[in-house]
């Protein structure tokens, strides 16, 4: 199931989209509504701000200058090659 919410940030409204897995959610997209290639909210998606509470708290701390590293799980869609590249990029300090 795909869930979404919007949050207010210093950059403007942000759209958070994630894939639910039991009690967890993997962040699939973080964008500004109307941004090029930003996903459009679909009727089959479920609005659920509570699912994104941790993401919202981390983003708030980041924008306040209190956080420099995120602890999030991602739902990265891509080819096997793209996913291997992303895993290697995550290893760069």
The level of helicity is 10-25%
Order of helices and strands: EEEEHH
Low-confidence stretches: none
Rounded to an integer, what's the Rg over CA atoms? 14 Å
What is the number of E strands? 4
- Total helices: the number is 2
Q: Compute the separation of the termini in Å.
A: 33 Å
Structural class: alpha+beta
Tell me the major beta sheet: 4 strands, mixed
Mean pLDDT: 91
Provide the β-strand percentage band. Answer: 25-35%
The main sheet orders its strands as 3-2-1-4
Instruction: Indicate the overall shape.
Output: globular
Structure characterization notes:
The protein is 24% helix and 30% strand. The protein starts with a strand and ends with a helix. It has 93 residues and is α+β, with helices and mostly antiparallel strands. The chain has two helices and four strands, in the order ββββαα. The chain is globular, with a radius of gyration of 14 Å. Strand 1 and strand 2 (12-21) form a beta hairpin. A four-stranded mixed beta sheet has the order 3-2-1-4, covered by helices on one side. It has helices spanning 53-63, 80-90; strands at 2-9, 12-21, 24-31, 46-47.
Question: Secondary structure elements and their pairing?
Answer:
Blueprint: E1 2-9, E2 12-21, E3 24-31, E4 46-47, H1 53-63, H2 80-90
Parallel strand pairs: 1-4
Antiparallel strand pairs: 1-2, 2-3
């Amino acid at each position: 199931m795909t869930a979404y919410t919007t949050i207010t940030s210093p950059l403007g409204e942000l759209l958070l989209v994630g894939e639910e897995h039991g009690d967890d959610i993997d962040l699939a997209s973080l964008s500004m509504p109307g941004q090029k290639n930003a996903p459009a909210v679909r009727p089959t998606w479920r609005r659920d701000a509570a699912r994104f509470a941790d993401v919202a708290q981390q983003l708030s701390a980041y924008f306040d200058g209190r956080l420099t590293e995120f602890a999030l799980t991602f739902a990265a869609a891509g080819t096997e090659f793209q996913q291997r590249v992303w895993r290697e990029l995550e290893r760069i300090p």
